[in-house]
Amino acid sequence: MSSEEDVSFGEPEFLAYRLLVRLKEQSKGQITRSKYLKLCCIADRYLEQNDVDIEFPRYWYKYGEIASESDIDGRVAWSTSAKGFPGRQYFPSDRFDAADWEDQYQFDEELYAPADDIETDDFDVDEETRRKIDEAIRWVVHRLGKKSVSEIRHYQYQRYAPLEFIRAYSDLRWQLENTEPVQGRLTMSATQQSSQELVEELLDEMVMAYPEEKFNDMYSLFLRWEDTVRLLLENQTNYEEVEEFFDSFIEALSKVELRFAYREDIPDERLSGWEEEREEVKTEFREELREVRDGHLFDRGTSGTFEALSEPFSKTVMDDIEESLEDQM
């Protein structure tokens, strides 16, 4: 790789760089950040299953594993704003001509040369490890290189989720993502009513699978969130709002619990930074919960259906949750 100074990249950088090269050889389409970070982890999983440890930094976040981008030397990848959608797209850093891309929105075939043109001296990786990493990359790109991020995410949690609870909430998110709203609502027809019932069943599975002892810091907030989702469903809330509220909880759970519990080769200084964020994340999510509930409780009360939607989620249980939350504040 070209550089203004002598550099020596390690095995994680070699994996990340080779993945980007192979993806660009396979297709000239845009490589999104999520796709890049997730496929890196799947390649490292492949290596792990073959008893190869390259100390690749990764952790579980929301619906799958992602690479800890901040702990991989950024000089092996180049990113710029994506074309046609929000976010960023990634390139092997020495194979991107910024002027050509910005001015003509096209690729120069010479920039995407075969993998043999890599400057091997830039990577402090022995030949055997290079071969094994390349094998992992070929496997990942062949199997998943043309898949969407949603499909890759589904692949990850189906095969690698460390908890049944993660599979349960990922199944629920998949259901929400693949349910077609009718006029923006979840309960406007018999078909949509069936979808709502399935969502409620998946919520029940989440409650049953929640690892209370392991993720105790978020347990009370989880129960209140779960009841609030049912409130949104009862009020026939806008479909997009239900999805957004679901993602807000999973993001908070990821920052408070998941990335600590399920991680590989994350430096201590990164963990310290995460630790400093935990209380702030909980406070912000608690406030969001309060705002969402306050915005919908009036509709629920005037509808004459303040009773719980199912026996396991009675008002008595919710009173206990409220008391527990007050104790934490």
Descriptive account of the structure:
- The protein is mostly helical and 329 residues long.
- It folds into two domains: 143 residues, no CATH class; 168 residues, no CATH class.
- Helix content is 58%, strand content 6%.
- The protein has eleven helices and five strands, in the order ααββββαααααααβαα.
- The strands form two sheets. It has a three-stranded antiparallel sheet. Strands 3-4 form a two-stranded antiparallel ribbon.
- A hairpin with a 2-residue loop joins strand 1 and strand 2.
- 31% of the residues are buried.
Write down the secondary-structure element order: HHEEEEHHHHHHHEHH
Terminal residue distance: 52 Å
Binned strand content = 5-15%
- Silhouette: elongated
Oligomer: single chain
Q: How many strands appear in the DSSP assignment?
A: 5
The radius of gyration over CA amounts to 23 Å
Task: Give me the side-by-side strand order of the main sheet.
Answer: 2-1-5
Average pLDDT rating: 82
Biggest pleated sheet? 3 strands, antiparallel
Total domains, how many? 2
State the gist of this model:
This protein is mainly alpha-helical. The protein has 11 helices and 5 strands; from the N terminus they run ααββββαααααααβαα.
Write the layout of secondary structure elements.
Elements: H1 11-26, H2 33-49, E1 58-61, E2 64-67, E3 77-81, E4 88-92, H3 98-104, H4 127-144, H5 149-160, H6 164-177, H7 190-209, H8 219-234, H9 239-261, E5 263-264, H10 268-302, H11 315-328
Helix pairs in contact: 1-2, 1-4, 2-4, 2-5, 6-7, 6-9, 7-8, 8-9, 8-10, 8-11, 9-10
Question: What are the main properties of this structure?
Answer:
6% strand; 11 helices; disordered C terminus; elongated; 329 residues; mainly alpha; two-stranded antiparallel ribbon; single chain
